[in-house]
Design goal:
About 50% of the residues lie in helices and about 0% in strands. The chain contains three helices and no strands.
């Protein structure tokens, strides 16, 4: 009789497996349901630092008035010496363009 298994032990092992399977199903998180927006309402705006797209800023070099006027003076001197046509306005705009180009070519200093 020791070799025969009693029917009560066979029944107890099967329900345990089923209860274990049910327990693992309970551990899984339930899916969250999203609320639908009403027609005409817009999505809430995110804070600026949470947006996906970063604003691209172009850093134009700051050039002092004195630096521009000094460069315009030397451009005017060269223009008069060489006999080229022009006036003080073109000298000023050329000076600004040259100084900006030079500032962008130089690497920025760490401060």
């Amino acid at each position: 009789m020791a070799t025969k298994k009693s029917p009560s032990t066979a029944k107890t092992t099967a329900p345990k497996k089923a209860t274990q399977a049910r327990a693992t199903n309970k551990e899984k998180p339930k899916a969250t349901v999203r609320k639908k927006r009403a027609a005409g309402k817009s999505a809430p705006k995110l804070a600026p630092k949470l947006t996906l797209e970063q604003k691209r800023t172009t850093h134009e070099p700051e050039i002092s008035h004195d630096a521009i006027s000094l460069r315009a003076y030397f451009i005017a001197e060269l223009r008069h010496k060489m006999g080229w046509p022009g006036n003080s306005q073109t000298d000023w705009t050329d000076a600004v363009a040259q100084l900006k180009a030079e500032a962008l070519e130089k690497p920025l200093k760490k401060r």
